Amino acid sequence: MDYQKTVLIVEDEKNIVDILRFNLQREGYQTCEAYDGTDGLEKARARRPDLILLDVMLPQMNGFDVCRALRQEGDNVPVIILTAREEETDKVLGLEIGADDYITKPFSMRELIARVGANIRRTAMAAPAASASDTAMPVAGDLSINTDSHQVFRGGKVIDLTQREYELLTFLASHPNKVFSRVDLMEQVWNYGYVGDDVRTVDVTVRRLREKIENDPATPLYILTRRGAGYYFAVP
Ligand code: CA
Questions:
Q1: What is the CA radius of gyration of the chain?
Q2: How far is the CA of 109 from the centre of ligand 1 (A)?
Q3: How many helices (H) and strands (E) does the chain have?
Q4: N or C: which end of the chain has fewer CB within 10 A?
Q5: CA of 62 to the centre of ligand 1 (A)
Q6: Residue 16 C-alpha to ligand 1 middle, in angstroms?
């Protein structure tokens, strides 16, 4: 059965919430809302939404802290940060703390709906607790991926990845030694048909992924950079 996806809107400006709710519901999503950060975090825990639209400047607890708290609890729900500022630091900080994407206000509703669709998990929720020895396929070195449970293991230990990090890793690993430009990756992994300045998102996600899967992120063994061309998953 095709169940309705739920989007949690965490935003303190009521007129923005209203327009988001209207447009998301028209696209077939279920919505729930929170008007401050604390309530947003509680609703994220209680409602287990399929995606969170998260404003940065919120009463009680800001959006970055909400996202950070969720990630620390191991919640990998897709998060799109809504930032009012054009500031690069805001965007990068959002990605650094584990958000999947950001949209700068004022945003076009068409773009927002496209990004919600692209970020929502299309596959079934990850099954709990699969063991590395079960069905995980070795990828390279001590790295293995279980595509049934959406889990990645290093040396038999589960690595906690966001959905986007997981998708980037499995995409690159499924095309070993093939170099993809950042624009290629935006299209293939982020499902964006348009790119602009957002290729920076790819760099930040690669860096975060390296910090999680590489022994020494400064001299990576798995995800390598081909200068001026892009990234690739190296297999000897
Ligand atoms: Ca706000």
A1: 18
A2: 17
A3: 9, 11
A4: N
A5: 9
A6: 10
